[in-house]
Amino acid sequence: STTSPSKAKLTPLVPGKEDPNRPLVELTHVEKHFGALHVLKDINLTVAKGEVLVVVGPSGSGKSTMCRTINRLETIDSGDIRIDGKPLPQEGKELANLRAEVGMVFQSFNLFANKTILENVTLALIKVRHMDKKEAEQLAMDLLARVGVDSQASKMPSQLSGGQQQRVAIARALAMRPKVMLFDEPTSALDPEMVNEVLDVMVELAHEGMTMICVTHEMGFARKAADRIVFMADGQILEENTPDEFFEHPQTDRAKDFLSKIL
Ligand code: ADP
Ligand code: MG
After folding, report:
1. How far does Cα 201 stand from its chain's mean position?
2. In the chain, at which end, N or C, are there fewer CB atoms within 10 A of the end residue's CB?
3. Does residue 151 surpass a pLDDT of 80?
4. pLDDT at 115 over 70
5. Which is nearest to 186 in space by CA: 47, 55, 1?
6. Ligand 1: which of 30, 32, 33, 34 to mutate, judged by most atoms within 8 Å of the beta carbon?
7. What kind and span of H or E run contains 33?
8. 134-160 burial string, b = 16+ CB within 10 Å, else e?
9. Could you report the predicted ipTM of this complex, rounded to two decimals?
10. Distances (CA, A) of 114 to 11, 118, 168
């Protein structure tokens, strides 16, 4: 009813404070091929600060590739990816810093096999964050305690169960104070009795306000922790909805078919 521009459209007075609501993670028209295979097709996705996004979809639909583009473990053919408004750095120190800001936990327990649990957590703190050893060890022990594996600190990764190793991997990522955490099927390789000890840590993180992108087949977790579900198939995002809407009223045949097989 008024002709004056909305406040949000006015030129900001403080540089860098352009948009307090800007997404923390933003993918725009992202395209990716592996040779002739078109794995990501016009991916558009935003994740707000503190939001928990769960990505589901059949195997081979591009979920892992999408995650890996966000911390530049994979390059993209075209499109744009921004973290906190900044385009992804290409190389060097900036890239190392990006990988610290975007924590990632994979399906396979990718701890350094020849380092102790404590060293696994302190390594990047010392090398990338230039923290002194004592300080790094103190922070590492705090975080290991938070995920319930501080008593394992002096052991080697192979001496821990899969569930314990994944919790160490989470602590290691958290030590870098990431802006966002990516989880790519972190419980798929675990024995069933260890799944919950990892999901519990993830739920706690979600409740503490961590921004998270989680690829998972754990629909109980998705219902409990997700603010939004993204359904991918054949390299495309086919649905994006609240958990209730997605599970109760899937819109596409692909999603209906996927849910009928997984639930
Ligand atoms: P998802 O995680 O949903 O199972 P991926 O992102 O792992 O899917 O894979 C998407 C498609 O890309 C699959 O067909 C897979 O075989 C293929 N792919 C993944 N990584 C590579 C790679 N490094 N080189 C070639 N093809 C790949
Ligand atoms: Mg995958």
Report:
1. 14
2. N
3. yes
4. yes
5. 55
6. 34
7. strand 25-34
8. eebbebbbebbebbebbebbeebbeeb
9. 0.98
10. 53, 12, 15
- Residue 132: partners with Cβ closer than 8 Å, 6 or more residues away: 126
Q: Find the 134 Cα to ligand 2 centroid distance in Å.
A: 37
**What is the residue type of 186?**
P
At 109, is the pLDDT very low, low, confident or very high (cuts 50, 70, 90)? confident
* Model confidence at 249: pLDDT above 80: yes
Report the alpha-carbon distance of residue 127 to residue 172 in Å, rounded: 13
Calculate the alpha carbon distances from 105 to 25, 136, 190 in Å: 17, 20, 13
Number of neighbouring beta carbons within 10 Å of residue 38: 15
Residue 175's nearest CA partner among 223, 221, 227, 117 is 117
- Nearest CA to 174 out of 97, 78, 103 is that of 103
For residues 166 and 190, is the Cβ–Cβ distance under 8 A? yes
Integer angstrom CA distances of residue 236 from 29, 45, 174, 215, 258? 11, 11, 30, 15, 14
Pocket flag, ligand 1, residue 69 (CB < 6 Å)? no
Instruction: Report the alpha-carbon distance of residue 255 to residue 247 in Å, rounded.
Output: 9
Residue 68 CA, ligand 1 centroid: distance in Å: 11
* Tokens 């327990």, located at residue: 109
Tell me phi and psi for residue 114, to 5 degrees.
-95, 15
21 vs 207, higher pLDDT? 207
Residues in the chain: 263
Q: Name the strands in the sheet holding 52-56, side by side, starting at the edge strand that comes first in the sequence.
A: 102-105, 180-184, 211-215, 52-56, 228-233, 236-241
CA of 66, closest atom in ligand 1: 6
